[in-house]
Design the sequence.
């Protein structure tokens, strides 16, 4: 059975797992974890692509297999 997106009202299949660290003010997206964990959230393609974080926080998309030459500021 495929897990569904954790966003309320969304029933799309999971494509990424979101984790966070409050102390470091960091949010990261990983490939889907093998098993669900209570400290992470599964997101669909649309919700992971549109992910934004609060001011002062960093978003790290660890799903990238190639390091980009330039990053948007």
Sequence:
């Amino acid at each position: 059975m495929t897990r569904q997106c954790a966003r309320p009202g969304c029933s799309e299949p999971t494509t990424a797992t979101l984790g966070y660290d409050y102390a470091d003010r960091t949010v990261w997206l990983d490939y889907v974890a093998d098993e669900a964990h209570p400290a992470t959230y599964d997101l669909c393609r649309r919700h992971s692509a549109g992910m934004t974080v609060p001011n002062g926080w960093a978003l790290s998309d660890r799903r990238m297999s190639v390091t980009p030459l330039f990053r948007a500021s």
Remarks:
- The CA atoms of residues 18 and 29 lie 5 Å apart.
